[in-house]
Amino acid sequence: MDLPTAWNLDDKSNYLSVDSSGLRVSYKYKGLGECEENVDSIRANQPIPLHCKLFYFEVEIIDEGENKYIGIGFCKKVVNLNGMPGWDYDCWGYYGDNGNFYCCSGKGNPYGPLFSTGDTIGCCLNFKNNTVFYTKNGINLGVAFRNLEGTLYPYVVFGSQGGSIEVNFGSRKFKFAVMIWEMNY
């Protein structure tokens, strides 16, 4: 079973730079994410296998950038990487600048706290009960989305000059105790 292990260097927008580990991404565009032309995103190197009943990843916010405009989520392969997670069909995302969760439309729903430099945001896709929840600094924020289906990729978007993140797909210990949660769920 091939799981996501890094960002896909060939499946990203133009203004993103990825370090040699494939885990740290920085946004170099001069815009402020005020429209879709000012955002760039990247997908993981592998989709989450459908037979993987539970998949969790964490994103550490190294630098929130000028306006905290970073979205963390998941998408299908058909999603345009110059769009915003959750604003188009087949993509979903939780945003640091407003705490909203976007589900296949440009209308966000209040979900969780804002996040910024130093925070770690986790995203758990539970294919056993078809739900998604996020964590902030190891604390479960509750279900963000129900009726999860399809082949999905971890996905992050930037619209904040100077923004930088590092992903953990499980190569080191998570801040959230996923296995304990799974056993108690």
CATH topology: Jelly Rolls
CATH superfamily caption: SPRY domain
CATH architecture: Sandwich
**Class, according to the CATH hierarchy?**
Mainly Beta
Helix fraction? under 10%
The neighbouring-strand order within the major sheet is 1-4-13-6-7-8-9
Radius of gyration: 15 Å
Q: What percentage of amino acids are in beta strands? A: 35-45%
The computed structural class is mainly beta
Number of strands: 14
Mean pLDDT: 88
Q: SSE order in H/E notation?
A: EEEEEEEEEEEEEEH
Approximate shape: globular
List low-pLDDT spans. Answer: none
- How would a crystallographer describe the biggest sheet? 7 strands, antiparallel
Number of domains: 1
Number of helices: 1
In whole angstroms, the N-to-C terminal distance is: 24 Å
